[in-house]
3-dehydroquinate synthase (Pseudogracilibacillus auburnensis), 353 residues
Amino acid sequence: MNELVVHTSTHSYNIYIDEQIRYQISKFIANDYSSIFIISDDQVAPLYLDDIMTGIETERIFHTVIPSGEASKNIDQYYRLQTIAMEKKLDRRSLIIALGGGVVGDLAGFVAATFMRGIDYIQVPTTILAHDSSVGGKVAINHELGKNMIGNFYPPKAVIYDVNTLKTLPDHEIRSGYAELIKEAFIANAEFLQQLLPLTLATISNDQLKDHLFQGVKIKADIVEKDEKELNIRKFLNFGHTLAHALEAELGYGKITHGEAVAIGMLFALKISEHKYNKSLYYDQLLNWLQGNNYPLSLFHTGIDQLINAMKLDKKAQYQQIQMVLLSSIGKPVVVNLTDDELHSYLQSFKKE
Ligand code: NAD
Ligand code: MG
């Protein structure tokens, strides 16, 4: 089993990554919780809900599902979950379990963060992308005016990751998760990048998955331990995200996955980095890898001005000034301010390629 400890300002928690570990959740849960409330989505629950309840003995165990997809990370679902928690008489000594991808994790985590001013929760991630969302303690729901605008920093009590659950993911979700893993390699670990670049996603083994998730989680954990509230180096995790967020907003959420948008954003950031620092930073290698693994790579029909405007609306832009994470070398990210004119010309040449 791969195991990792994350230290936060309030407590430490463990991340366990293994095969078939979903049948052993009961071993990781303290036995003095007054009740347990499992939140999942309607695609994940039929596959894994029964499995994770194996061995949990309390009679006070409840569960519910949300419709799968980003649209469920909303105030109505949040309110419905709080209502169930109250109807089932959860109290301060209750535990919430989030079983699913980042949508379930963010929503269930925010319910836990705010129910009676905060109760324990654990993350049982079932997507590759959720190696990112389940670690670091950010929990949130969306507002009509912006994604993740209502939320908190509220770390879980544990993260229990069963790589066997990832076998049922559709290909585009595998691509989505691996884009974030490759992002972590680019910003922090050149050796990990060398392992990932020859990889064919269609043939990854469980051992590779375990190893890659472990390395990705470790990079993320190291960063959030040093900067929990994103005041400085946590921003590096936004490598590829400035354009990605704009693209997702312009295309409408759901057209491509988050990670697929990040893949395009990383190419763009690498293009600018190679130009600014006048050296190879693996743009060509990343492009080959993404093409070989069937990532959708065009900027579609989005206009450049719309993309720049969308970048300014991103909540990480400060005072309408667009900041991007670039690389000065592999494993050495830098945050750089870019003017509209610079962005315009970079986007124009990027779009032509
Ligand atoms: P998701 O939770 O929507 O899952 C993707 C799809 O896969 C869904 O349709 C889901 O039902 C399905 N699915 C999940 N597990 C499955 C399995 N094992 N087998 C088959 N199908 C399965 O999306 P995601 O990509 O996991 O997460 C995206 C969300 O995560 C976004 O809302 C994003 O804002 C959030 N996020 C949060 C953080 C953070 O730090 N909190 C970081 C990154 C992303
Ligand atoms: Mg991301």
Observations:
- The radius of gyration is 20 Å.
- The pocket of magnesium ion (ligand 2) is lined by residues 132, 180, 241, 258, 262 (CB under 6 Å).
- The chain has a mean pLDDT of 94.
- The CA atoms of residues 1 and 18 lie 5 Å apart.
